[in-house]
Amino acid sequence: MIIANEECELIALCDVESYGALSLNSYKVPFFTSLPDLLDSELTFDVLNVCTPNGFHAEHALAGLDANKHVVIEKPMTLSKASAIKIKEKAELNNKQVFCVMQNRYSPPVAWLKSIVSENKLGNIYLVQIDCYWNRDDRYYLPNGKKHAWHGDKKNDGGVLFTQFSHFIDLLYWLFGDVKNIQARFKDFAHTHSTDFEDSGTVSFDFEKGGMGIINYSTAVFDKNLESSIKILGSTGTVKIGGQYMNELEYCNIDNYSAPTLEEANPANDYGSYKGSANNHPFVFENVVKVLKGKTKMTTNIDEGIKVVEIIENIYKLRP
Question: 103-277 has which CATH code?
Fold first, then answer.
């Protein structure tokens, strides 16, 4: 993604795995096997992209900020609000930017939904329901019959709301604001042998601005992903966006309004035996460049990243 952007330059790569094991021969840049080695090198670069397991995001982001780098953090920002606040404080102290990767905001149906909510086309929001039903079976958690290095690990994965569905918690907050009065039920149907946490849950809450919401989620779906959808019932309209990755406008009935023809959403990221969320990462790097050049505002700022972590953390506090 970095190479594909004409205004970006890939300076180096860093991973605990070896260069050869990662099949990186097509990338002719210096390679490091530890972040301290990279940051202590004489290489000059502006942005550190943190794409490590969730449990390392805070440590690596703070190290990058200490080295006077801007930081891009893959979702989730961290696994705790406390560590996310440390990143914010360090960024402010060092006058550096922190970008949170929530690429689903760029999906055409989601961007359209943001516009009609912002313009109050749906009136008073009564009910919002998000349904996320995905497949994450042994191909994901036990590749080649062995436990994955961090998938399913409570310390470094954190749970499916962090690893799989934080995109949709982000969209919920982005569209409708903060939540309160959270209630939740959890169940582990298909992953008692492979993860440290539940695979399914139902969460209900009220919005601070009025209305109520429900999130139903599961990674116990047989064989392949089923859907990621959002239904919104308002006083002057009803909308549903569905598809596997919340990428299709399926229903729109709004007073004195005709739904536009939307651009086709990008296909999902393909990780081999399973697929991830919508492939909108090029827009993330485009935003990073424009922000650092003073041409636009950040798409997902640090406070929004913190809020997503806080909401998930508050849901998980209700775990038995």
Answer: 3.30.360.10
